[in-house]
Write a structure and sequence with these properties.
The protein is built from one helix and eleven strands. The protein is mainly β.
């Protein structure tokens, strides 16, 4: 079993930055692909970013390319999402997920993820 706990969310003004963390426990995530998803009020959960087990391969939703950066530190069992140039459309609850298939993560197959965190809310004010 893997437990995932997100942190780092909060209220930020448009144009600002936040860094989200996803700390894993229970077992090492070094063999898992990891992803960040988000869910805005009244909307479905959507894929944001994926990173393979080593951290050398990443993939992003078009709307966050060039603004968000996903990274991981396997020694610390933690995944990060650096979010820059935030806008009100980025307001959502952000979730991290772990899965054995990088393909499933990068294709946003959220119903196939092995493990989920409980999310951290991000609010961007205009």
């Amino acid at each position: 079993q893997v437990q995932l706990v997100e942190s780092g969310g909060g209220l930020v003004q448009a144009g600002g930055s936040l860094r989200l963390s996803c700390a894993a426990s229970g077992r090492a995530i070094s063999t898992f692909a990891m992803g960040w998803f988000r869910q805005a009020p009244g909307k479905e959960r959507e894929f944001i970013a994926a990173i393979n087990w080593s951290g050398y391969t990443t993939y992003y939703k078009d709307s966050v390319k060039g603004r968000f950066i996903i990274s991981r530190d396997n020694a610390k069992n933690t995944v990060f999402l650096q979010m820059n140039s935030l806008n009100p459309e980025d307001t959502a609850v952000y979730y991290c997920a772990a899965d054995r298939s990088y393909s499933d993560v990068m294709q946003g197959y959220h119903d196939r993820m092995d493990y989920w965190g409980k999310g951290t809310p991000v609010t961007v004010s205009s």
